[in-house]
Amino acid sequence: MKKIVASGKTIEDAVQNGLTELQVSADRVNVTVLEKPSKGLFGLIGARAAKVELVLVPVIVPEQEKATVSAAGTAPKDPLLEAERFITEVARSMGLDIAIVRNDSKDELRLAISGGGDLGMLIGRRGQTLDSLQYLVNIVANRYSNSHLRIVLDAEDFRERRRKTLEDLSDRLAGHVVRTRKEVVLEPMSPHERKIIHSQLQNHAKVKTFSKGDEPNRRVVITLK
User: Fold this and answer.
1) Considering 15, 41, 56, which residue would you say is the last residue of a domain?
2) Which domain holds residue 215?
3) Residues 52 and 36 grouped into a single domain
4) What pLDDT sits at residue 219?
5) Distance, CA of 9 to CA of 33 (rounded, Å)
6) How would DSSP label each residue in the chain?
7) What is the mean pLDDT of residues 196-202?
8) What pLDDT score does 46 carry?
9) Name one GO biological process term (predicted).
10) pTM of full prediction above 0.85
11) Are residues 152 and 83 in the same domain?
């Protein structure tokens, strides 16, 4: 079974570099996170790239399925089943036994992960590992879908807890800006998390927000109106 180790600035970059080297799509590999990225001291000294192991999964087609495919063309696959299978394989490679519950809405498909063991391994620092896994899950699902799917991946209600944390942080920092009359620049955040900050303060009487910088270091700025 072929496997490689790839690295990159983020987990997504590392996985994409590995997929490029193997010349396969995300659904053809099992991914294990070996090292998470670290900025190091002052963002320079001791900086460490993300490192992942990709194991190529052989394609095994049962004889009965071969006959069906031969007679009727390529058999369609359920995008969500393939996404769930991918998540389960990743979790298993991390030694986790999980369950996945689907919650559908108008705007998105939500897959909620639960189970025993340390699901914090799937969440990562401030949800970085969960975001990376969500990115890969969307690649896998859309490979088998005729229309674009947007899947939100959650574990132990992390998304809701993080949203509440960011809303509380927004209110506290807005108050700080009003008192000190000095703008506040937040740490780099994902587009989803920046949107939470902007939405929470969009109707504030005394402060406004905007984003600056380039991904993945784009930040929210809170300043006086």
Assistant:
1) 56
2) 159-224
3) yes
4) 94
5) 13
6) --EEEEEESSHHHHHHHHHHHHT--GGGEEEEEEE--B--BTTTBT-B-EEEEEEEPP----HHHHHHHHHHSSPP--HHHHHHHHHHHHHHHTT--EEEEEEE-SS-EEEEEEESS-THHHH-GGGHHHHHHHHHHHHHHHHS-SS---EEEEETTHHHHHHHHHHHHHHHHHHHHHHH---EEPPP--HHHHHHHHHHHTT-SSEEEEEES-TTS-EEEEEE-
7) 96
8) 46
9) peptidoglycan biosynthetic process
10) no
11) yes
pLDDT of 95: 85
pLDDT at position 204 is 95
Question: Six-digit token pair at 133?
Answer: 């896994």
Choose the weakest-confidence range: 46-50, 139-143, 144-148, 220-224.
46-50
Please state the domain count of the chain.
3
pLDDT per residue as tens digits for the range 10-48: 888 888 888 888 777 777 788 888 888 776 544 444 467
- Tokens 């998470």 belong to 36
67 lies in a domain? no
The encoded tokens of residue 156 equal 């132990």
